[in-house]
Each structure stands twice: as C-alpha cells, then as structure tokens.
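@channel anyone free to eyeball this complex?
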Amino acid sequence: MFCIGFGQDSHKFADNGKALVLGGVVFTGQRGFVAHSDGDVVLHALFNALSGAIGGESIGYYFPDKEESNRNRDSKEFITFALSLVEEKGFKIGNIDINIEAAQPKITPRAVEMKQALSDLLSIKFEQIAIKATSGEGLTAFGRGEGVQVLVSVLLEKIIS
Ligand SMILES: [Zn+2]
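replying in thread with the prediction:
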C-alpha cells in the first residue's frame, strides 16, 4: 500500500538576529525568520507532508508555539519525531518532492547540500529527494522577498502490515 502526503509552510523574514536555516542548511549573511523554533520552513512543510500521509495533524498540534520548550528549537528534532510516527505505522519513505518559492536566498546553488542534509536526517538516498525552486517573479509576498513558502509532497510505502 502507498500513502501520499502534502505539506505547506511559510515564514516571514525579520531583523531578529536569527540564522536562516533551510532544510538543515545554514545560509549566512541572510535575515532569519519570524518563528518560535529555528524557523526551518522546509522542515516544517516536510513535517506536514509526512504527518499528512499517515492521517496525522499539522506541526503546531504536536509542537505548539506557546510551549517554551520549543523556543529556538532545532527543527530536525521535529522531523525525527515525524519519522518515528511514520515508522510506527509500518511505512518507509518512497520519495520526497520539495518546492520552494523565494526571491531570496538563491536556493538552486545550495540544493545539493540541502538534499545531502535531508538524506542524512531521514536515512534515505539522495536520489529519493527533489528540491525545486522558483523566484516567484515578484507576484507574491514570497516572490517579493518578504519570506519563503515551501510545498512538499511525500510518498510512503507500507512495509509492515
Ligand atoms: Zn513553520
């Protein structure tokens, strides 16, 4: 059996001294996000896709903004949790397709690094992950460089019934 999941998240840039982290990769010299956690919008959208594929809830349900323990938290910990839910239900990841809308930073030059970081985090092959980026052509808040939006689809395969 296969299950598909779809996730979305977006964050707004701010001059708050936070580092910009996307897919576990730090982009130096860039503004970070308004976020309670580290604001890794790629990992948050991925969380929502993984959770959605197994009929779960969005990230805020498991890791509320109001909880002090989640302040500046490394989003990789959220993904480790999502992965445990996926494995408990007897699934493994088939493939992940990540789509990023951002005028800045430029994603494509760092996409290989991001895929490597994600394949390490998820214990899957580099080839199972796609990262595509669009500048947004100035049409949306993301396309005007005010923040970043990420859309992710995930396919899960049932290995234990
Ligand atoms: Zn988020």
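from a first look: The radius of gyration is 15 Å.
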